[in-house]
Specification:
Order of helices and strands: HHHHHHHHHHHHH
Structural class: mainly alpha
Shape: globular
Radius of gyration: 21 Å
Number of strands: 0
Number of helices: 13
Oligomer: single chain
Strand content: under 5%
């Protein structure tokens, strides 16, 4: 099913492309700019992501070495490129094994990460609407991306509020969870599921440590800035005369595309969103637009695969995934 969706998006992205002109564009591309952008977005951005993760993990274990976090981040990205969302499970399992912490709690911190990433995307999308509201609406008609982002933001905020209430009323939460598991699960699974659920909630413990808020905010902003710089530098590879603000819009739209858990690192949706934005909003030639999408996506995927494979060999990780009760 996912493969069919991938093929459909690729068809939409390439259906009006002159492959002869596309080949010419790829021949004259200045790949050094795109490669530099990839290094900033993929490696520097990932290092800052690992640093932010360290702050989220602090309530579980203080001052985990960056070497224990950066390599799982890269291995997780590699797994995501191979198996959609596979890295979301592999990364916390790898770190939990190495640092002797709860797997379920480590997985909870990944959920926190995704919440921050989604909220960053929606906040920046709201910022972009001040400048591009009409063009975005026209480019992605008949889909109302503005309303989709608004409702999605409200759902995420509601989810965060529920988690906060659970954390500050943990004993009541445990009693409620225990009652629910007794009603819907066989007795032999009740205790394990109860422990796993509470452990996942513990992944949100940073909420009880306000001193970490600023560090998490700054690292979240720096991750986004790395992605925008990466996108902006890649403009020069194709002689696209757009601004840093325009690069920010592309990152927002590509983030929307990458939220779809599709094979090939969401290649089809990424190609379609980037091409649609460059052609419909900025009147860029379709062959240049799809060339930009292909080069940026493939370089990023290649960087993630090579780095992930290198660290998996270096660290001799074994991917025995699964959330076990501790």
């Amino acid at each position: 099913m996912l493969s069919a969706v991938l093929v459909f998006f690729i068809y939409l992205a390439f259906k009006d492309i002159d492959f002869g002109l596309l080949y010419e564009e790829l021949l004259k591309t200045k790949y050094l700019y795109a490669l530099t952008g990839m290094v900033i977005g993929t490696f520097i951005g990932s290092y800052i992501r690992a640093l932010r993760w360290r702050y989220l993990l602090d309530p579980l274990k203080k001052n985990i070495p960056m070497s224990s976090l950066f390599s799982p981040v890269m291995i997780g990205y590699m797994m995501n490129a191979i198996i959609p969302r596979g890295g979301e499970v592999a990364r916390p399992v790898i770190t939990a094994q190495k640092e002797k912490i709860s797997r379920a709690s480590a997985f909870g911190t990944i959920l926190v990460e995704r919440i921050f990433d989604m909220l960053s995307m929606f906040v920046m999308f709201g910022f972009c609407l001040f400048f591009f509201r009409q063009k975005i609406s026209e480019a992605f008609y008949p889909y109302d991306i503005e309303m989709i982002s608004l409702y999605s933001s409200l759902v995420i905020l509601a989810f965060v509020l529920v988690i906060v209430l659970m954390l500050f009323n943990l004993k009541k939460t445990e009693i409620i969870v225990e009652k629910i598991t007794k009603k819907i699960l066989p007795s032999k699974y009740q205790e394990s599921i109860h422990k796993i659920f509470i452990s996942i909630i513990n992944g949100f413990l940073f909420i009880k440590h306000p001193k970490s808020y600023f560090k998490i905010f700054i690292t979240t902003a720096l991750i986004w800035i790395c992605y925008v710089i990466s996108s902006y530098l890649s403009f020069f590879a194709f002689d696209i005369n757009l601004s840093f603000l325009d690069a920010n819009l592309l990152v927002v739209l590509s983030s929307f595309a990458m939220t779809l858990p599709l094979p090939g690192n969401s290649a089809g949706s990424y190609y379609l969103f980037i091409k649609t934005a460059l052609v419909s909003i900025y009147s860029i030639n379709p062959e240049v637009a799809i060339g930009y999408a292909i080069v940026t996506h493939l370089l990023n995927a290649l960087g993630l695969l090579v780095a992930g494979f290198y660290y998996s060999i270096k660290e001799n990780y074994k991917f025995s995934v699964g959330l076990k009760s501790e």
